[in-house]
Design a protein that fits this description.
Distance between the termini: 20 Å
Strand order of the largest sheet: 8-15-16-17-18-19-20
Structural class: alpha/beta
Radius of gyration: 24 Å
CATH topology of the largest domain: TIM Barrel
Helix content: 25-40%
Length: 548
């Protein structure tokens, strides 16, 4: 047997059970066929074999992001970015919106994303009056970085049929001023609902999906666990884009809609499309509901009021019984289940539901998850282990939002995204970026998991720091386990899918404070190179003797 591709002279981090590091890998078709030394791959080199000389650089299993929103990330690339380097004030952001309005046909939406009131000079949200001053003929929406809060103009409220007399939706708020007038700020469920009104065409969504896939592949991401978009059409469009090869990354698609998530889950359960349906490129994932809100909003549901506001303990979308009525049924019918739960109160309520579901319908290897698992106090960790629940924390969050967490939650940051505790307690855990909420780059996630410092340099729960190898596992083998895929991907082992990533240097010998500065040079999915930057030495070698 002659291999199609061989990698030699590398730092090959296999992420197998023993964290073995070797120097060479051989690939045939879409599978890994040899893992070992340069000498061991020598015999499978033929005249048509492509040989990559890694020159000591790191070769890893393809990164698995266990929680992000592919469509949301993509459509944001079509909108005004409040995270752009030059946007340092509300005034600058408003100027960008004015420019967008000039090039947008009247009546069409003007959208901005990534706004963070704590990161602008004025330390406030834009007002409805400021947005109206830009245009009364375009609906305008400015989405906060968390994706749970937005500010809109009166044209947008009109299209959404929201007036001063409209009642707040359950789990959400149409913010009003002291006189009862709408401020334009929409919180949680109110924000989720208007995003369905501010919808995109199928063509725009397909364009957005391709953008997302291209960006993710360039970052070494070969598989994602998609955490849902606005509306059930997202599911159909994702599958079509995969079939048409507009999306190259493998997708484990959670059964979730960001608005009225219970309705979509109910429909899927009734349709009988169960977790695991699909193939290696697109597979049905866990049934997911929203429990609470944003960690930076802040709107997460906590057992004790916020450190920053003694009268605020957050927002809940559903009662515990309502959660159980949907997810208890899903569990009984064989689904993997999960929730968005950031605050310790929301986490506790969900664990109560899992415990009840397992008591009423015992099931081995259910691998129920919990997305984010923000404030995971020790008593909650103990219950996660007992119940076999897999938390999916977001390692990069403390980098962008850590200073905000200290302000809102005080000492509770010591158990936020508590990866060190999860590992030490024998709790299986995997990492996700939650893009577009924050940067999708897995190397940034690994960097922050190791260093636990915010962008400003503040330590955020330093005791939750983990090793480089542990952080790599979060984004590879553990991610595969969380989607029941550990037998086919997540590590570099013979027989597994050839999803591989080459870095521009050695990650094991890198300065720990500079891991985020490493770059992906090559990404391979299914044995095919789908991304390649400059810098890699590739040689077509005819004679076997040239290898050593």
């Amino acid at each position: 047997m002659k291999a199609d591709v061989v990698f030699i002279n590398g730092e090959v981090i296999t992420v197998d059970e023993r964290n073995t590091v070797v120097e060479a890998v051989a690939v045939k078709s879409n599978r890994i066929v040899i893992v070992g030394s340069n000498e061991e791959v020598k015999d499978c080199i033929g005249t048509q074999t492509e040989i990559f000389d890694l020159q000591g650089k790191t070769l890893l299993p393809g990164f698995i992001d266990s929680h992000l929103h592919l469509i949301l990330y993509g459509v944001n690339q079509l909108a005004v970015s409040c995270k752009a380097e030059h946007v340092d004030s509300v005034a600058v952001m408003l100027d960008d919106l004015r420019k967008k309005a000039l090039e947008t046909p009247k009546g069409e939406w003007i959208r901005a994303w990534g706004f963070n009131e704590t990161a602008v000079e004025e330390k406030r949200y834009p007002t409805i009056g400021e947005l109206d001053a830009i245009s009364v003929e375009h609906p305008i929406i400015v989405s906060r970085t968390c994706g749970h809060i937005s500010v809109v103009n009166r044209k947008a409220l009109e299209l959404a049929q929201i007036s001063e007399n409209t009642e707040d939706p359950k789990g959400g708020v149409y913010e009003r001023d002291q006189g009862g007038g709408l401020t334009g700020r929409l919180i949680e469920a109110a924000n989720m609902a208007i995003n369905e009104v501010a919808s995109y065409t199928d063509g725009e969504l397909r364009k957005a999906m391709k953008i997302s896939s291209d960006h993710f592949v360039a970052a070494g991401i070969t598989s994602i666990h998609d955490a849902g978009g606005y509306g059930p059409d997202s599911y159909r469009l994702l599958q079509q884009a995969v079939m048409d090869n507009d999306i190259r990354v493998r997708i484990y698609a959670m059964i979730c809609s960001l608005n009225n998530s219970h309705e979509f889950v109910d429909k899927m359960i009734k349709a009988g499309v169960v977790t695991g349906t699909g193939n290696a490129r697109f597979k049905v994932g866990s049934a997911k509901l929203f429990m609470d809100g944003s960690s930076t909003g802040p709107t997460i549901a906590t057992r004790v009021p916020y450190t920053s506001d003694s009268n605020n303990s957050g927002i809940l979308y559903y009662s515990e019984e309502e959660i159980y009525l949907v997810l208890g049924q899903a569990h009984k019918k064989g689904y993997q289940i999960t929730v968005h739960a950031q605050g310790d109160k929301a986490i506790e309520m969900y664990l109560n539901c899992v415990e009840r579901a397992l008591e009423e319908s015992p099931r081995e290897n259910h691998r129920h998850r919990i997305e984010h698992a923000g404030i995971s106090a020790p008593d909650l960790q103990e219950r996660m282990k007992k119940l076999g629940v897999i938390p999916i924390p977001n390692p990069p969050f403390p980098y962008e939002f850590g200073d905000i967490y200290v302000h809102h939650y005080g000492d509770r940051v010591n158990h936020m995204y508590a990866v060190r505790d999860f590992i030490d307690n024998g709790i299986m855990t995997a990492g996700g970026s939650d893009a577009p909420v924050t940067d999708y780059n897995p190397l940034l996630g690994i960097h922050v998991a190791v260093n636990r410092k915010s962008r400003s340099g503040m330590e955020i729960g330093k005791d939750q720091s983990i090793s480089v190898m542990e952080a790599i596992r979060l984004y590879t083998r553990n991610g595969a386990y969380a989607s029941f895929d550990e037998d086919i991907k997540g590590s570099i082992e013979v027989g597994k899918l050839a999803d591989l990533v080459i870095l521009n240097d050695s990650i094991l010998h890198a300065d720990l404070t500079k891991i985020k500065d490493l770059r992906v040079e090559t990404t391979m999915i299914d044995g095919e190179i789908v991304y390649q930057s400059k810098g890699l030495v590739k040689n077509q070698i005819v004679h076997e003797s040239d290898v050593l």
